[in-house]
Specification:
alpha+beta, elongated, about 30% strand, four-stranded antiparallel sheet, about 150 residues, single chain, 9 strands, five-stranded antiparallel sheet
């Protein structure tokens, strides 16, 4: 048995006497719940699943779009990639053996992938990197790089 609640900002699904869904099944259940109520699907979904005995509770909400991440092995490659992009929300991190630049997906130009390698970035990774002191430029990194190195 399933009891479903869905709004534009949250979905909850209480499942009784069924096996807990896999991650893919959970996301499909959420999409289905939104569609059945005439609501638009979310671009990103944050979901949690709690199982106890024969009961499972799925709680979901719209997620935040992930930033695109690029790894650059040296400063020259970083600057070449960054200078080919428009200014905008971006951050720069020290990766020990190079640099990681994060940008909004729509601002990621092809030159970033030409000079750097794609790097998997999640919101959790950025929080962790900031907590570990890896953040070199937390806001508008591309504009800061351009300002400091384009003389």
């Amino acid at each position: 048995m399933r009891t479903v609640q869905a709004t534009e900002t949250a979905v909850s699904i209480w499942i009784t006497r069924e096996q807990a869904p896999s991650r893919a099944q959970m996301l499909e259940l959420i999409r289905q719940a939104l569609a059945e109520r005439g609501l638009a699907p979310w671009e990103e979904t944050e979901a949690e699943c709690f199982a106890a005995g024969e009961d499972t509770l799925v709680i979901a909400r719209p997620g935040h779009p992930r930033r695109a991440g690029y790894f650059f092995g040296d400063l020259e490659a970083l600057l070449a990639g960054a200078f080919s992009c428009a200014d905008g929300p971006s951050a720069l991190y020290n990766a020990g053996d190079g640099y990681v630049l994060t940008v909004e997906p729509e601002a990621a130009g092809p030159a970033l992938a030409e000079y750097g390698d794609t790097f998997p970035v999640t919101a959790e990774w950025e929080v962790h990197a900031r907590e570990q002191g890896m953040c070199l430029m937390g806001e508008n990194a591309i504009a800061c790089l351009r300002r400091h190195f384009s003389r």
